[in-house]
Predict the structure.
Amino acid sequence: MAEAAYRRIAADIRRRIRAGEWTVNQPLPSRREMADYYRVHEQTVRLAYDLLRRSGVLDGERGRHVTVAHPPAVRTLTNADLPWPYSTETTDTRPRPATEELAARLGVRPGVMLHHETVECLDPGGHSAMIVSSWWRGRRRPHTRHVVEVGTAPLTAEQAHALGLLVDMTAFRLVRTRLDEDGAPVETADLVLPVDRWLIRLSSR
C-alpha cells in the first residue's frame, strides 16, 4: 500500500508540473507540507521525491528542498550496437535458464543455462537513460553484424524502479541479436528505453 501511495503521489506531482503549477528551478513544498496535502506520512513523500529525482523530474539533495529540473534531453538512437558513451552500472550478472523466447533467439534448447548481464546506462547527469539485458551461451564471442526488432512493452517493477518511472508505463523494447560471420546468433539483448527520452531512427546499414 505504501509503495502504491508514493507512486501515485509521484504521478500526481508529474501531472501538476506539466500543468504549470511549478516551473523549472522553482522549489516544491516541503515534505511536511506535501504530506499534509496528500494526507500521508512524510516518508511516503520522501519516496515520491526520490523517485522523481531519479527520473530527472526533480533536482536537489535528499533532505533539502527539491526544485523542478530541466526536462531530460531527448536522445536519438540510430545504432543499437554502439557502445554507450557515458557511465554504466552493472546491476545483475546471475546466470539464467533459457526461456522459450531466448532459446529461439539464440538457437539453443529451452532450459539451457545462459550467461546474463543487466547494465544500466546513465546520462551525463547521472540519470538512468536505458537498461540493457544481455544473454549468451559459453564464452562471449565476437560478432560481425546484428539485427534489431523494435517494439514496445510495459515496464516491469525492476525496470521502472531503475528508470524512475511508474510500473506498467510503456517503453521502447529493442530486441538486438548479434550474429557471427556465418549468421549464427552469438548473443541477444533487450534494450529498454523510456519513450519520453528517446527517438528511434535506425540506420539501414
Notes: The longest strand covers residues 113-122. DSSP finds five helices and eleven strands in the chain.
